[in-house]
Amino acid sequence: QLVNSGGELVQPGGSLRLSCAASGLTLSNTDMSWLRQAPGKGLEWVVGIPVAETITTYADFAKDRFTAYRDNAKNTLYLQMTGLKTEDTGMYYCAAEPLTIDGLPYDYAYWGQGTQVTVSS
Fold first, then answer.
1. Which of 7, 38, 39, 43 is the most buried (most CB within 10 A)?
2. Could you read off the pLDDT of 17-50 as tens digits, one per residue?
3. In the structure, what pLDDT confidence band is assigned to residue 54 with cuts at 50, 70 and 90?
């Protein structure tokens, strides 16, 4: 089970840290991702965090503003977001164990319930 938290209303330029706490799953041994869904839009991949975190990969919009990392002692995944923009508004989900076809993920075995981020003045 994955439990998301940390989302809230924040002003443009502000920062947030989202959490993804796991139970029954060891995150240090699991490929993870953060995804988001803006109002009225489809699901958008934000960052992929493989077991080897040195090859964490970000969507272009997330580079230089978002940082994803694990705290293995707490079995928790985080997404630190800075320089937030109104277009970052949406529901944010963590997901674990990508299901792939030809190496490309099409779903995940585990999903968090999501946490709402609203960026507005």
1. 7
2. 999 999 999 999 999 999 999 999 999 999 999 8
3. confident
Number of residues that this document lists for the chain: 121
Residue for token pair 């277009």: 87
C-alpha 13/C-alpha 95 separation (Å) is: 26
| Nearest C-alpha neighbor of 114 from the set 23, 24, 2 | 2
Dist. CA 20–CA 96, nearest whole Å: 10
DSSP class of residue 98 equals: E
The answer to whether 18 and 92 are in contact (CB under 8 A) is yes
Q: What is the dihedral of CA 90, 56, 65, 45, to 10 degrees?
A: -20
